[in-house]
């Protein structure tokens, strides 16, 4: 029995094919027939496929976080970015008393171009402060930077969690001390009337006063920085070590690797990205070795040993009232710091590390 053309074997007709719209009018008719919600969902789907999330969705999702961080952003803009506008006085002979308001005085002070920078290059006190700053930075980079790494490795090797927590708390506690308290503690220990000097005198030995020794001042301030801030670095490195899987140590131990081998081939490679990041940031602060610490001990050892760029800017700008010259020195210090960060980060990229930002 033959089957009629266009019919199925059961005698029914197949559904008619839907013809594609061939004209602009038909296409518009089909588009209008699609609900707007479906069209919106289609746009959102295309955005998600392209890796982009609509702003409305991101705002609804991140609104609590944005509101929570908005006060911090406002304070950052107010105290860190708005004052950058004041660097314009570095190119002026700024006089805050030319008008009744120090802000409007900027618009009435004469322009002198790069005269303040030329004066800076001809000032021997500026070069003396720069020399002290570079020497102190190099000394702290060699003696201070490796200390948190070593202490973090020692604490990480402690098996008992309670002993590890107590040791970490004791080392981290000085970070909360002010520099006034830190200098006072060192004065009571190493000063002429300190515990060590008084004990030596009681036993017939001649006392000493390390707090007034200009030749040992750079080592003294380095020791103070280690005692105060080494605990903060320990926390950073311990956080990096906590991300290392214990399976790596167990596998290395099964292969016969001892403690030193595991530290050299597992622990230190895990710390390399953090070490590179902190080293880049430390190099960026090469010209900012401290302010309060040196200002508090300035009169004990003299300006020749304790004058750094931060105290030099303070003396010239605040004490002497030479605001334009102090702004020029501060601006030059900031620009050099930016160049050092970029150079150190480029060097980190050459070593295969990420640094502050990726390539």
List keywords for this structure.
0% strand; disordered N terminus; 65% helix; 359 residues; mainly alpha
In words, what does this structure look like?
The protein contains 17 helices and no strands. α5 packs across α10, α10 packs across α12 and α11 runs antiparallel to α12. The protein is mainly alpha-helical and 359 residues long. The radius of gyration is 33 Å and the shape is globular.
The N- and C-terminal alpha carbons lie at a distance of: 76 Å
- Unreliable spans: 1-5, 17-31
Beta-strand content estimate: under 5%
Task: Provide the structure class.
Answer: mainly alpha
Write a short abstract of this structure.
The protein is mainly α.
Question: What topology emerges from the helices and strands here?
Answer:
Blueprint: H1 24-33, H2 36-49, H3 55-81, H4 115-121, H5 124-143, H6 146-156, H7 161-172, H8 179-190, H9 195-202, H10 217-242, H11 246-254, H12 259-284, H13 292-296, H14 298-301, H15 303-306, H16 309-319, H17 323-350
């Amino acid at each position: 029995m033959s089957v009629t053309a266009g019919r199925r074997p059961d005698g029914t007709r197949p559904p008619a094919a839907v013809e594609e719209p061939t004209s602009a009018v038909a296409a518009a008719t089909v588009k209008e027939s699609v609900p707007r919600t479906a069209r919106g969902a289609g746009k959102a789907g295309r955005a998600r496929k392209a890796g982009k999330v609509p702003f409305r969705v991101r705002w609804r999702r991140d609104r609590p976080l944005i509101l929570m961080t908005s006060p911090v952003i406002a304070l950052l803009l107010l105290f860190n970015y708005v004052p950058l506008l004041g660097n314009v006085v570095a190119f002026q002979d700024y006089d805050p008393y030319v008008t009744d308001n120090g802000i409007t005085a900027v618009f009435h002070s004469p322009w002198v171009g790069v005269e303040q920078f030329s004066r800076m290059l001809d000032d021997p006190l500026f070069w003396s402060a720069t020399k002290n700053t570079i020497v102190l930075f190099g000394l702290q980079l060699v003696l201070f930077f490796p200390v948190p790494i070593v202490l973090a490795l020692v604490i990480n090797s402690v098996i008992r969690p309670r002993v590890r927590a107590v040791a970490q708390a004791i080392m981290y506690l000085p970070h909360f001390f002010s520099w006034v308290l830190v200098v006072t503690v060192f004065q009571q220990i190493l000063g002429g009337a300190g515990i060590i000097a008084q004990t030596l005198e009681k036993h017939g030995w001649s006392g000493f006063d390390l707090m007034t020794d200009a030749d040992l001042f750079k080592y003294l301030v380095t020791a103070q920085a280690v005692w105060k801030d080494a605990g903060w670095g320990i926390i950073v490195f311990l956080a990096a070590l906590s991300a290392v899987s214990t399976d790596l140590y167990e596998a290395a131990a099964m292969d016969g690797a001892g403690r030193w081998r595991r530290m050299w081939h597992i622990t230190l490679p895990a710390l390399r990205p953090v070490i590179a990041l902190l080293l880049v940031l430390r190099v960026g602060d090469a010209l900012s070795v401290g302010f309060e610490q040196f200002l508090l001990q300035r009169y004990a050892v003299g300006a020749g040993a304790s004058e750094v760029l931060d105290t030099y800017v303070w003396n010239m700008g605040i004490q002497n009232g030479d605001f334009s010259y102090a702004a020029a020195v501060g601006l030059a210090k900031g620009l050099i710091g930016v160049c050092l960060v970029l150079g150190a980060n480029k060097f980190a990229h050459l070593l295969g590390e990420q640094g502050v930002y990726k390539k």
